[in-house]
Amino acid sequence: MKKTLKVLLSLVLVTAMAVFVAACKKDTGEKVTITYAAWDLGTVENMNLERKMVEEFTLKYPNINVQIVERPKIPDPNNPENQVDQNWDDFLGAKASAQNLPDVFMHAEILKTVEMGWAEDVKDLVAADDEFDKISPDLLNSTLFDGALYGIPLKAYYFGYYVNNKIFEDAGVEAPKAGISFDDLLAKAQAVSETSTDGTGISGMRVGPDMQFWYPAYLNNDLGYYTWDGTQYNLDSTEYKNALTKRASIFTETNSAYYSDVATSEFLQQNYGVDNEFAAWDAGKQAIRWEASWMIGEWLTNQNDPDKGLYQADIDFIGMPGDKQMMVVDYLVIGKGTEHPEEALLFAKWMGFGIDGYTRRLELVEENDNYNINFTPIVNDQTLLDKYLVKYPTLVEFRKVIATSDIMFESLAKTVPGYVLSRWNGQYGQLGNETATIGQAHDMLRDGLVNFDDIAEQLNERANFFYTQAKEQLLD
Q1: How much is the pTM?
Q2: Strands 104-107 and 79-85: what pairing?
Q3: In sequence order, what E strands does 63-110 have?
Q4: S-S: 444 plus which of 47, 105, 139, 450, CB 3.0-4.6 Å?
Q5: d(CA 220, CA 367)
């Protein structure tokens, strides 16, 4: 009995000592160090908002040290006397080979990180996170593969159309609103277009290069970008054929007066005093402009600068025509084999979807005129969204864009196996006297050099073949 009591007392003492030691370690401020690599950090000297956010995280969580892994410079292959950033995947590949992957890193293609064995499955880590549950299902599902979660949404951007409301007001024409039909949007552009001989004209619209790939989803809500429906491509569909027909009716020389991406540089120079399809907007001489929402911060800053062409433009963002919005997402990845997964996730949350982190971003923007935020909150939190939009009072229609629950993803390469082959590099086969890639086949369809009915079936079969093949290889 005495022996048993001694053993029990010894166990109690050991346990107490363990608790005491742990408490002492905590009291002494022992830090955990995690590493971070991203392409948007700028330089140490410039201290942009992203790098500042890293610093702010360490102030909020003093027990976690974040060590930034800088991407090395290498000789420019085209001019060895100059230095350029090393290719991102080469940089990460070298780190992986040395078994020294960053604990957290940015990546544009989640499936690439899975294929290379660089990504940690964090599904169980985020299971109990209430804020993670506030991310829209469409956005969350974009990071899932075979039941695992490899990507953490960092920044989400919308594609669509910006509106210079001043031009519409000056012309006495009601400006387009979110949800407008595509035909009505084209009509609005034509209504305010003005040619001139002295560079003072108004270009109605930049239509954008991707119309043939998003327009099928505008016609059919079951389709997404590039006719992807969640399980396969539908490139032989009536919707894709109609998209090509619609594009051909817009991109004609006779429409130069309406659409800057149709006009020649000579026409642009004579009528708007600019020499390329993008510059008319920057000069304040274009009513509607196709672009992603990552330009919001810069353009809304320019409209307050009397030295900029967009001064007093009263810019809004109406997104895509119709009811479906198109999004592109950047992700953070937790490095495979990290020794500190909880701390890595906490940091990723701070930089991306977390309410505390985004709130601090907003405060930093107020404190520093050189900072702006070009992405909306990722979590569905109305208070946070209001705090963001109060800085940009002209973004009235943008609220409706953000509220849209029906989303398609432009960046399919991030989440759909084999997309690069299915969209560009995979072999279509023989077209005339040449062997063409899938990308070349699409270009020939766009330019009217081949007949849709002659190649659509094979084009669709080849695109789906590369997807199926890549998916099977990943599952293996």
Answers
A1: 0.87
A2: unpaired
A3: 64-68, 73-76, 79-85, 104-107
A4: 450
A5: 45
**Can you give the pLDDT at residue 369?**
85
Residue burial 225-255, b: 16+ Cβ < 10 Å; e: rest: bbbbeeeebbbbbebbbbbbebbeebbeeeb
Q: Which domains does the chain have, with CATH numbers?
A: 32-156+327-394 (3.40.190.10), 416-475 (no CATH)
The answer to whether 314 touches 135, Cβ cutoff 8 Å, is no
Structure confidence at residue 418 (pLDDT): 93
What are the helix and strand counts (H, E) for the chain? 20, 15
Q: In this structure, is the dihedral angle defined by the CA atoms of residues 436, 438, 444 and 445, taken in order, positive or negative?
A: positive
Alpha helices in 61-181 (DSSP H): 88-97, 110-115, 123-126, 137-141, 165-171
Eight-state DSSP code of residue 246: H
Is there a contact between 237 and 224 (Cβ–Cβ < 8 Å)? no
Supply the pLDDT for residue 411.
86
Residue 139: phi and psi, rounded to 5, are: -70, -40
CB-based contacts of 163: which residues, under 8 Å, 6+ apart?
175, 176, 287, 288, 315, 316, 317, 318, 397
- Tokens read off for 296: 């919001």
Residues in the chain with pLDDT < 50? 1-28
Tokens 């956010």 belong to which residue?
53
Whether 418 contacts 463, CB under 8 Å: no
Residues 201, 194 contacting (CB under 8 angstroms): yes
Please give the span between the terminal C-alpha atoms of the chain, in angstroms, as a whole number.
59
